[in-house]
Amino acid sequence: MKHVKIREKQSNAFLVAVSAVVLGLVAGAILMASIGSNPFTGFWFLFRGGLMNIERVGNTMATATTLMLVGLSVAFAFKTGLFNIGASGQMLIGGLCATLVAHYVFLPRPLYLIVLILAALLGGALWGVIPGFLKAKFNVHEVVATIMMNWIAYWSIYYFIPAYLKGPSLETESASIAVTQSLRTPWLTKLFNGSYMNLGFFIAIISVIVIKLILDKTTLGFSLKAVGSNRHCAEYAGIKVNRNVVISMMIAGGLAGLAGLSFYTGYSRNMQIGVMPAQGFDGIAVALLGASSPLGVLFSSLFFGILQSGKGFMNAMTSVPPEIADTIIAVIIYFTATSVLFKRFWDAVLKRQGDKAKKKEESAQAEVKKEGE
Amino acid sequence: MKKLTVALCIFLLLGTVVFAQGSAEGAAKKSNLRVGMVTDAGTIDDKSFNQGTWEGILRASKDYALDVKYLKPAGTTEADYLKEIGNLVDAGYNFIICPGFKFETAIFEAQDKYPKVKFVILDGEPHSADYSVFRIEPNVAAVYWAENESGFLAGFAAALQVKEGDFGFVGGMEIPAVQKFNWGFQQGVKYANEKFGTKIVMKQENNLYQGTFDNVSAGQQIAASMYDRGVDVIFAAAGGVGVGVINEAKNRAAAGKNVWVIGVDVDQYPEGLMPNGKSIILTSAMKYLDRASYDMIEAELNGTFPGGQVLRFTAENDGLGIPATNPNLAKSVTDEVAKVFAQMKSGAIKVAAVGDGLFK
């Protein structure tokens, strides 16, 4: 008689994410239906708006770039058990450093790009390392510290832009960066038919790969994850918890700084005062939907990129007012951000199926036994 | 699993029901002109720039049975604006109105990118991002207002009404349109003092720019400290910041204080209404935004679209002024304002558009 071993099935991240997205879209559809619009055409135009032609694909990718880097930043901090809610501030400082470089440093293109990237990386890392240090040294909660750092960045920009980077006539935004000093390149702009697609996308892709390697293949990654899954256990195992917290926040900050780079020198080419970049918070949803894994973040940011750049076209083609469109996007984000619920749901479903199968197996075995007698 | 299937079926049914409603969306329209608008910072019901422009568009759509639509960009960068302009163009809108100087660089790009689409920019004219090139193509009309004249009229009216007191100014961002309101306002008050013997005082400390158009609480704080310093009337040319000023004035008026606000861009009288039915809005320095968008649409329909031109809406062409009805102004005051307005029209009164010898 053969014994079949039934493995306990666990829901995987992909299933969870897909069901969250589907339910989010359904909720959005119900909302659309309730204001008297046809959800099918609504979603049709939403996705066409993001992907209809090569220019729109480029815009979607440019929008996704920033989200990808912020999502990666948040996901990386998550892995160490930290909640980096300060990506907005890190973006601002990273963007500010990059903007300064763009206005004042003139070098051959390849060298210039390296300096530009390093500037943004360092700026963001600085804004990340401070809360990390406070957490490690004084156990100041990183949520509080990073939110406060957001506002310090916000008001620093408020002072800095008019004082040093002022445009020719406007007090409220920095002078526009020349295309040759930005992340945009003629061949990419041409390839994507005049879209905002820029080199930031490649920076984001490389970052995804690097972070994946760090997390999966290095001792540093192992100890970061160990701290994340159980701080005390990690400490007991001889891992320097505090050092890891600081390093984690530093890298997370650097990633958000790169997001600032892609946004302020690639997508928009100038910085405005009095604007807290919303991407810093959207990135949290990106990380949650991507189950805090680098590849997950890659795909979820592309999804959010489609939503955000397709939204306007949906507005233009249907009678869904812009405010409702924002609500629909928010509903989808809400469902995706609560993907933990779907994980529980699928775990329960799979467990029940597993139990059923087990019972069947047992009864079958009992019958076999009976027959044997 | 069965339950899930049932739920799905119900949902699909719901979908088809709604489909039937949805198909009624596109009603037949007469003209093939489709008018789109991209909003500036703030919402469509901002009681100011966006709303004023949109009301004009709606009026035109009623009179000429046009298809109209507004889109709200995600941010206020050139990329955000161009994206929404692209959305409107791809959706078949061929006449796009953009309210605000912030659209200048976006329109500069869009005029070449979409040569078949007509654009109207309010409060600005297209130029390159580094201000090196100013160029306006035949598919673009740019509209400016002489805010200084509007500010003059409001300042003059308020001075005549109050006769004796202390006036202050709260601006939003320090941009030309707001500065011109400020400078015109000061000239208007001075004119009343010199020619009509009013005793209005203005001090540098009561003349400032908050720096944004949306910080309501900052507006309230600034207004509070001005009123504490003895200011009686504040001219708020500051969007959302002005809403804060109005709120503070309402609080004080409710507590029995005699304070006033002068509104901006549109007739803000309804914004200043209190439960007792009175409004703390003395008068408003208006730019006839709705008239601009309406006139431009009308011109296009008549085939007289002023493409490639930079237009100025002034007192001379009735493009600005104080509201038609001012319940808080005496009849004698509005009569005098009408006289001054006529003199402005004829050129007898000239209002400087620069701040020489004035605060800021």
From TrEMBL, chain B:
Its main location: membrane. It comes from bioreactor metagenome. It is a lipid-anchor. Residues 35-351 form the ABC transporter substrate-binding protein PnrA-like domain. Belongs to the BMP lipoprotein family. InterPro entries: BMP_lipoprotein (IPR050957), Peripla_BP_I (IPR028082), PnrA-like (IPR003760). The keyword Lipoprotein applies. Signal peptide: none annotated. It is found in: Cell membrane. One of its GO terms (cellular component) is plasma membrane. The lineage of its organism: unclassified sequences, metagenomes, ecological metagenomes. Keywords: Cell membrane, Lipoprotein, Membrane, Signal. This is Membrane lipoprotein TmpC.
